[in-house]
Design a protein that fits this description.
239 residues; 5-stranded mixed sheet; 10 helices; 46% helix; alpha/beta
Length: 239
C-alpha cells in the first residue's frame, strides 16, 4: 500500500511539473549552436579534484505566487574569467536587462544548463525548503553531463542525491558556477511569471514577479487567491 501511495505522489508531482512547463515550453535550455555543449572542461591540475563542477541555485523561494525554480549549470574552465569580466555575479545585484543579456551568454557557453521546478502544490505539501531542494535536484538530474561535484547555494544538502555535493553559504557571491545558475533561474522564472500575469492581471505580477508587495497583498484581500498562490504562506492563508 505504501509503494502505491508513493507512486501516486510521484505521478502527481510529474503532472504538476508538466502543468508549469506547458506555460513556458523552453524547459530544456538549448546548448550553444557553436557546439560548446559537446565539450567537457579540460582536466584540472590535481587528480584529487573533480573535473566537472555544477553550480546549483534556486529563485522564488520567498514569493507568494508561482513555482520555485532552480538551475544547474556546468561551465568550461576556459570561460570563467570571461564570464566574470562580463559581469556574472549574484543575480540580485543585477538589473533585469543585465540578467537577460548574461543568461543568453551563459547558455551559449555552458557545457550544460538545465531548469528544475517545484509546483505550488508541492510547496504547500512539502514546505518551501523541501520544495526548493526538490527543484534543485530536478535541475541536476536533467543535466545531460553528469557532474563530479555539485556546488549548492545555501547550507542545506539536497536529499538523496547520488552525486557529491558541497553547500556554500552566499554561494552566488563566491562561485561563478552558482552565480551563473542564479541568473539563468531568475530569468527563466521571471519570464514564466510574465506569461502567467496575462491570465492573472489583478495581482500586478508584471511588476512584483509573485512577491508580496503592497499591491499584491491588497489584490489578495480584494480578489482572494488564485490556483497558483501558495496557500501555506500566511498572506495567502488569510485571504
Amino acid at each position: 500500500m505504501k509503494s502505491e501511495g508513493r507512486k501516486k505522489e510521484e505521478g502527481r508531482g510529474k503532472k504538476e511539473e508538466v502543468e508549469i512547463f506547458t506555460l513556458f515550453p523552453s524547459f530544456h535550455l538549448p546548448l550553444s549552436p557553436s557546439g560548446a555543449g559537446t565539450h567537457h572542461p579540460p582536466p584540472l591540475q590535481s587528480p584529487s579534484l573533480p573535473q566537472i563542477i555544477a553550480g546549483v541555485d534556486e529563485v522564488g523561494r520567498g514569493a507568494l505566487f508561482g513555482p520555485v525554480v532552480a538551475a544547474a549549470c556546468i561551465l568550461p574552465d576556459q570561460v570563467l574569467d570571461e564570464l566574470v569580466s562580463c559581469g556574472v555575479r549574484d543575480s540580485k545585484q543585477l538589473s533585469a536587462a543585465a540578467r537577460s543579456r548574461l543568461a543568453v551568454k551563459i547558455r551559449a557557453v555552458a557545457v550544460d544548463c538545465q531548469i528544475g521546478a517545484a509546483s505550488v502544490r508541492e510547496i504547500d505539501r512539502l514546505n518551501i525548503l523541501q520544495a526548493s531542494l526538490l527543484a534543485m535536484k530536478r535541475a541536476i538530474l536533467k543535466l545531460n553531463v553528469t557532474p563530479d561535484l555539485c556546488l549548492v547555494d545555501g547550507n542545506q544538502r539536497i536529499p538523496n542525491l547520488s552525486i557529491d555535493q558541497e553547500t556554500m553559504i552566499k554561494g552566488d557571491s563566491r562561485s561563478i558556477q552558482i552565480a551563473a545558475a542564479s541568473i539563468v533561474a531568475k530569468v527563466w522564472r521571471d519570464e514564466l511569471i510574465l506569461r502567467m500575469a496575462v491570465k492573472y492581471p489583478e495581482y500586478d505580477l508584471t511588476n512584483n514577479k509573485g512577491y508580496g508587495t503592497k499591491k499584491h497583498k491588497l489584490a489578495l484581500e480584494r480578489c482572494g487567491v488564485s490556483v497558483f498562490h501558495r496557500t501555506s504562506f500566511s498572506p495567502c492563508r488569510e485571504s
